[in-house]
Design a protein that fits this description.
Blueprint: E1 2-4, E2 12-14, H1 17-69, E3 74-77, E4 83-87, E5 94-96, E6 99-100, E7 117-126, E8 131-140, E9 148-157, E10 175-178
Length: 185
């Protein structure tokens, strides 16, 4: 800061025009850096939110499948008798019979109206342990070339099944199951 004086007795203090322009230029440069930083942080929070929502959606579907299969007395490939667990025609939801497995859960949609996530479903049986492992794989439909973005699985113990009542469902994308009472022996 310079001190201007016409008279030795009168002193005025102030900033020059050059100093003011310099301070404003520094503020503009710093604001650009701050904006870029906030933008990166905002996008990373958005990505974390989407992954958390995918986790919730997959977990809810897996738990609903486990709740249905744990009381099953027989589990076979789809097309046989019983209730069927399968993907919807467009691969955006899981169906139990003709109804959505999670009827009140609506997932995100992309700009063109399709579901945000594509689902993959597979079943694997361990007849000796009387368990069924269900795996859900999710892809991002907003990114056409995306591979599997999220994968989750659950193993369901089926105490009412026997090795004879569990069919060869390894790799199946849908299953049929019955919850008929166990015949008394």
């Amino acid at each position: 800061m310079k001190i201007f004086s016409k008279n030795k007795n009168i002193r005025r203090r102030g900033f020059t025009l050059l100093e003011m322009v310099l301070v404003m230029a520094i503020m503009v440069i710093m604001s650009a850096y701050l904006y870029a930083t906030f933008k990166v942080v905002n996008y990373s929070h958005l990505e974390v939110t989407v992954v958390n929502d995918m986790h919730d959606y997959a977990s809810l579907n897996l738990q609903a499948i486990a709740n249905n299969l744990c009381n099953a007395t027989s589990i076979t490939t789809a097309g046989d008798t019983g209730k069927v667990i399968q993907l919807s025609g467009d691969g955006s939801s899981i169906k139990l019979g003709n109804a959505d497995l999670l009827p009140d859960f609506v997932q995100y949609h992309t700009g063109n109206g399709t579901a945000k996530w594509g689902l993959g479903l597979s079943f694997t049986a361990n007849k000796d342990a009387k368990t069924i492992t269900v795996t859900i794989e999710m892809t991002d439909n907003a990114v056409p070339s995306s591979d599997v973005v999220y994968r989750d699985s659950i193993t369901v113990y089926c105490p009412s099944c026997t090795s004879d009542t569990i069919g060869n469902i390894n790799g199946a994308t849908s299953v049929s199951f019955t919850t008929d009472p166990i015949p008394a022996s």
